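Margin note from the TA: students keep mixing up input and output lines. Inputs are the sequences; the output is the structure of the whole complex. Example:
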Amino acid sequence: MSAPEKQETLQERREFLKAGAVVAGAGLASGVLVFGAAHSRPPEQAATADRRWGMLIDTKQCGDGCNDCVTACNTENGLDGKTGPQDSQWIRKLNIKDLRNGRVHELPMLCQHCEHPPCVDVCPTGASMKRADGIVLVDRHTCIGCRYCMMACPYKARSFVHEPLTEQNPEVPRGKGCVESCTFCVQRVDRDEQPACVEACNAKGHQAMIFGDLMDPESALSKALKSQASTEVRADLGLNTGVRYQGI
Amino acid sequence: MANENCINQAACRTPQFLMLLALGGLVMLGTLYAFFTLEHYGHVLTGMNNQIVWGLPHVFAVFLIVAASGVLNVASIGSVFGKKLYKARAPLSGMLALAMMAGGLAVLVLDLGRPDRLIVAMTHYNFKSIFAWNMIFYNGFFVIVGLYLITLMDRKLKGYSTPVGFVAFLWRLALTTATGSIFGFLVARAGYNSALMAPMFVIMSFAYGLAVFLLVQTAMYWWNGLTLDERVQARMEKLLAVFVAASLYFTVVFHITNLYFAKQWEFERFILLDGGIYTVLFWVGQILVGGIIPLVLLFSSAARKSMALVALAALLVILGGHAQMYVTIVGGQAFPLEMFPGYAESSSFHDGVVAQYSPSIWEFMLGIGGIGIAFLATTVAVRTFKFMPQDDFHALESGKD
Amino acid sequence: MAKLADWLRLVVLAGVAAVLAVPSFQAAAGVGLPKLERGKGEKCVEDTQFMRRNHMELLKHQRDDTMRKGIRTTKHSLKGCVECHAGSQSGSVAAGKDDFCMACHVYTGTRLDCWDCHATKPGKQSFFGTGAAAGQAAASPRNPAHNQGGGQ
């Protein structure tokens, strides 16, 4: 079952409940609700499409020149923080200026974890992949380093490792000759923690990033998305990004 | 020993032959040295970076692959459309196609971040990826064109050359369509994202392939002290002119279409007006050297008589082809990716600025290896097998062809 | 032509024979069996004989499960291997040719590319204690225990 179909069925199930068709829907719906409420996934259980991880970034809260999300990402994932043309950057602060009126915004740009990721479509070996819960990853075991995904990404979210690396974070393997990008800190998410960038943003008191489950209507993320207008970057491409922005 | 192998040569000229081998071998040594160095130190030694992810090696490789499929046209015209003049050239055309495809593919593979994982690329296919389809088309090309070559050269199997040639013809069209689509399917970038990429690559392959063919053919005739029959030359140079003109036509349509779409204006301004090296390469390289000058040469009355002039035109088409690949591949990436239309972007990751690319000697040595492989394979094959065109002038004269 | 082919065939055969013979030359020269340092734990996650022959299969299976499905059981995790088998001198499984992985792989002449990407040393934070550490980290996002990510 593909993700949009899944989403639709879930939606249907919820409407079922609302309509009071308890008899017909109880079995299925209770399963959904219990799963939605349960937070941790046991280590032996695979990620499923009942969840889709996403993020909402409020550019109004994103502070003046604050770079904490980037630093936290580098520390967590073992990036050296250099910004030369050949260095990896998984998240970066982007400054944008409206050419008509000069209004400026700051925002973190990272892998948007699309529902229909172009990087996954174009990857010849299937190394570029989307996990069932919506996290887009590179499987370095099958990445041949052709860089076609970097050509395809509309967000310039990916980097190629140009040099041999040592002393990696044991939880975050990285190496020469493969492409890499933001993983939503999948190693943390799998043990119910927030991505490092979100944690750093909250610690700074900016609260500009909300991370959570897009499929769970009760998550802080879903509630925020429901109550405030948000935009996708390059919405015209129809990729249904997991990362949304507000304030632009 | 070397003399025994020079079948079909009017003059063996063994010392010169060995010098050609040495030249090709030298290039290959450089390529292998560059490959092992890059394999050890990583792409940090190249000018490629996270903005320009495909550089000089891809320019050489894609040109060779496109021209490889194009050079097979000569055989197709013979086998599929039954033209005797071209049929006499079919074996040479098939051999060149294989040699150039091998060269182009080798460069693509040697430039991978993990060339040691070639086996992964051959065993894991994501069928939604046009790149994966290309790998299938490239591999199939060797099999089909190889078979085709056998049917062309083995007297007993000659009967099969028409059906196999037809399959090869369809295969090569699919292949070039897929190669163009590698760029055409890149939805996010202003320089690509166009269905026109596929047919444009097909038509360009006609021109590049025939240009390479004419150059090699001229060299072979010159080597053996022969002159190409005037009628044959006239036909082939006209065909090249038609292909070059068609390539120009597609280029014009591509840019006119872009000029009509407001969202593409910035990209067009970049390529056509203020893109620095890319603008120069487009106008001087692709249009003037690769298009207009060859057309003038081919249509001049002097070209009728001069093999050298046609070879020069072909050489210019090839040079222009490389310029076109550079503009398409590198220029398309150098133009900044627009995430927020109507906004100026800046960041530590080179957003909103034209990406800089200065190729290093390493990637040049790597890229030139493709030509090296094609050159060596051709040099040896032409000497060892019967690839010299054998024209049936009787048929030409009787006007049956 | 025929002469050349014969000659080529001979060269290729000789080359293949030489390549095949190299390991036995080493053995003949008295290269001893690799000496492996004992791991930290009481015993390995599977029988030693089984691990000798099948560790790569277990790792490959686990790698696909973890990478593609997000299954993070610890029994056959590479990180677990590194925790136990990092050498007492080097602190690594693959820093020198005496370290656990390299000792055998050098001896058998099989190249492995795990360590192009994976850390060869255990993290400062205990692998088996991630649960507790995770709780801590969640409470204090700037927890330095969490900033062990190497590379700097």
